[in-house]
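Need residues for this backbone.
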């Protein structure tokens, strides 16, 4: 559930941005969570996977439009 909540904090710009370490820190501080380093690595791995999937789907949609 933490990943889903953190995912909604992504910076908005010209596309989908990764979850930042500062957002993870803020989230963990606000929710009194003391993540182990491996848990942060898992969050970042999930994030990279989600971004890769988003970019792949976006590329497919762009090809359909052409």
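Answer:
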């Amino acid at each position: 559930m933490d990943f889903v909540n953190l995912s909604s904090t992504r910076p908005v710009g010209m596309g989908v941005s990764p979850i930042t370490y500062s957002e993870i820190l803020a989230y963990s501080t606000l929710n009194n969570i003391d993540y182990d380093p491996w848990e942060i690595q898992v969050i970042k791995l999930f994030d990279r996977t989600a971004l890769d999937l988003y970019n792949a789907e976006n590329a497919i949609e762009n090809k359909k439009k052409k």
